[in-house]
Amino acid sequence: MIEVIENPQSPNRQGTDPLTIEQMLAYFRVPAVSVAVIHDFKLDWAKAWGIADVETGEKATEKTLFQAASISKPVAAMASLKAIQDGHFGLDQDINTIPTSWKLPDHPFRGGVPVTPRTLLSHTSGTGDGFGFPGYEPGTPLPTIQQILDGDGPGCRGPVRLVPPPLTQFHYSGGGTMIQQLAQTDAVGRSFREIVRDWVLDPIGMKDSSFDLPLPETLEARTTRAHDGRGRAMNVKYHVYPEAAAAALWTTPTDLAKFALEVQRTLDGRSSRVLSKTMIQEMMTPVGVGPYAVGFAIARTGEGWYFSHGGGNWGFKCRLVAHRAKGYGAAVMTNGDNGEALVSEVIDRVARAYGWDTLDKPTLR
Q1: Mean pLDDT over residues 145-161, rounded?
Q2: Full-prediction pTM beyond 0.90?
Q3: What is the DSSP letter of 162?
Q4: Which residue from 35, 120, 283 is spatially nearest to 274, judged by alpha carbons?
Q5: Which residue of 9, 46, 251, 299 has the smallest Cβ count within 10 Å?
Q6: 319 in Cβ contact with 73 (< 8 Å)
Q7: In angstroms, what CA-CA distances link 342 with 70, 199, 281?
Q8: Mean pLDDT of 21-28
Q9: Total domain count for the chain?
Q10: How far is residue 196's CA from residue 19's CA, in Å, rounded to a whole number?
């Protein structure tokens, strides 16, 4: 583990020693950061720095749970691909032939290409919601999934509807993820939380992860508090998210690393605990419009190809990034609204310390 930042673009002043993690927490006004690093297809180390809750002064540890926010989406996508692998529906099936409790209005768009699980999970379906999910204070009334999609439940911000035709443009859509959640639960006949626990979390060994609302007491006792951009406690400990597949996962960087490792090992032919290699490749293959495959963003950085996803809930920022073929990566989670900059600094430091090919330049002939 490297305790300092070596990035020349970091907040270090010229001519001074690099900032330690503790100094960076103070600089960015983020109470805590938790990190897990993957190397050689294994979890290399995990560690947390800082305070889990500034009101109680409790220290963060590697077992402290953070909200994964939108990193919930690739975990949910893996569960959908498992349903597809088991024959419940098709990846390219018209979405309105799958759910029984709700249908997408105005579908297909002007008689054109249908919306499918593939387009919903790659943000190319044409669903145009741009409002995000702000969450709810614990104890307040929560909408059903159907109310979320129609925009008419308590606290809902608008309906999820088609704007452009499918596969014409990339538009990040949490609403599209919720359509897919509803389709999956209707087709399988079980709750989303049961499906993802039994099909993904338990087989991978993600014992410190849950989509449950409320959380089990043993996990609730280890949750962090949400903090604002100045590192101050929010008015409630955290928000809750009925939009489970889009935003509701509580987890640790270690468990996110286990998730990424399952993807890497399956691609490398070392595992098949959840999906076959053929099916996991759908999570690595962009659909052709925008940067997303089924669940993950795919990008070339330097000479390397990486799969990744970020997350940002009320008072939480995090990111998971891993190499497509080389068996390394990192998960970084914070409990502050200003955590995104800190996450970037930590990932850059890990990349430099381990010699990731994000830093490699192409060879000129």
Answers
A1: 92
A2: yes
A3: B
A4: 283
A5: 9
A6: no
A7: 18, 33, 31
A8: 97
A9: 1
A10: 40
